[in-house]
Amino acid sequence: LYKRLKTFLISVLILSTIIFFISVLKNNISLYESFYFYSYIPITFVLAVFVIYKSFFIPGKLKYFFIIGSSFYILSALMSFFLSIAQIKIEELPIWIERLLKHGGLFYFFIGILTEHMIFALGLAYRVKEINAKMILGFKEKEELRKNLNQELEEELVKKEIEVSKLIKKAEQQKLLKVKSELESEINKLHLTSLHSQMNPHFVFNALNSIKVFLIENDRKNAISYLNKFAKLIRKILEASRTETLSLAEELKIVELYINIETIRHTQKINFKIHTDNKISIDKIKVPPLILQPFIENAIWHGLAKKRGEKQLLIKISCNKNNQAELNIEDNGIGRKKSEEAKINRLLKKKSLGLQITKERLAFFNERENKNYSFEILDLEDHKGKPKGTRVNFFFTNKAKSYFSAG
Question: Which strand (E) or helix (H) includes residue 312?
Fold first, then answer.
């Protein structure tokens, strides 16, 4: 019905516009007045009656605005119509009154339209006020509901706390040792997670610091290569952060990528090699993620950064004399003592914190995984007692499982 009415009204509008221009061109306004009074007003009169009829079915008080407004329009349309067709001529009255009575149909018609629009505007304002009132009421209901839910949650939390307290007391009485062991295991797991979360920002910070220094040099070619490798490294770090353990093979891939990134920004190339004994299956050795990174970082920044001449960094995985899988990280840098004396970079003096975190992570990893991993740091010297580098020895001891290949 709406679509049909819309099409009809558009047609009337187009027709009235055409008639208006014809009247102007022919200088005969009576043609347009005839159309207006004998076609347009009756049509809109019928539509107004239809609006009043439909308004009775509108719920609420809004319908009264439509009924009253449309009624004013109907009355003005009737008055305008009858005044336009009335043949009134009263010679005793002034001429302007006679003209108003005879030709004032449009005046009353537009007064009716104006009144109708004002009433509809009041109806719109009433509707807006009604919607706002509902919204405010809805907000109040939601706020009240939120308060009730919070109160219920608080009450439920108090109940749960009481229940947990009772369960803990009961568990302490019945299985004190078992509960203690489980709690300690959970604490260790949380502590390990906390330490792991500290390692990743520490690692990323140093890598970003390297990028900052490199970008200052404004080398476009190497910058693109550096950023691509860094993006790949970050992706691997994010993947590693989702797990509690990595295979040594995966750990070495991250280490290799990190060293490649650090090598790019150094003016002198770092000769880096990884040598693995074929008898050892590095896929079977599980380690905490990023456990080797602090040692590689220290080797580069503390040992090799100020090293003159050839720079070497070797990672070797082999079987030692105690039949243990062993990993060695060896550099030919300036050594730890000389590094501390030179004060290469004050930011790098925080290495002790990184090593302490690594020790704690390894201790909790051993307890959780029932392993006996350990490491030691040795200062290398030549036959004259002069520093010639640093070596870190990792020992992977696992009584329950062999790391050696069947072949």
Answer: strand 311-319
Structural element, H or E, at residue 293:
helix 293-298
DSSP summary character for residue 301: I
CA 152 – CA 12 distance, rounded (Å) = 63
Dist. CA 83–CA 97, nearest whole Å: 13
Sequential DSSP letters for 329-361: EEE-SS-HHHHHHHT--GGGGGHHHHHHHHHHH
Q: How many CB atoms lie within 10 A of CB 86?
A: 11
CB 214 within 8 Å of CB 223: yes
Query: Which tokens go with 261?
Result: 């990134």
* 30-33: long-range pairs with CB below 8 Å, 24+: 33/84
Length of the chain: 407
Assess whether pLDDT exceeds 60 at residue 324: yes
Alpha-carbon Rg for the chain, nearest whole angstrom, is 45
- CB-side neighbour CA atoms (13 Å) of 73: 25
Tokens encoding 49: 């009656």
Burial of 229 (0-12, 13-18, 19+ CB in 10 A): middle
Q: Shortest CA distance to 258 belongs to which of 195, 308, 211?
A: 211
Cα distance between residue 351 and residue 298, in whole Å: 7
Do 282 and 247 touch, CB atoms closer than 8 A?
yes
User: Cβ(403)–Cβ(279) under 8 Å?
Assistant: no
Q: 181 is written with which tokens?
A: 């062991």
- Residue 111 · residue 47 · CB < 8 Å: no
What's the pLDDT tens digit per position in 337-366? 877 766 544 444 444 566 777 888 888 888
Under the phi-then-psi rule, with left for phi > 0, alpha for psi from -120 to 50, and beta for the rest, what region is 281?
Answer: beta
Query: Is residue 272 helix, strand or coil?
Result: strand
Structure tokens at 89: 């001529």
pLDDT in tens, 126-150: 888 888 888 888 888 888 888 888 8
Q: Do 92 and 101 meet the contact criterion of CB atoms below 8 Å apart?
A: no
Token duo for residue 121: 């505007």
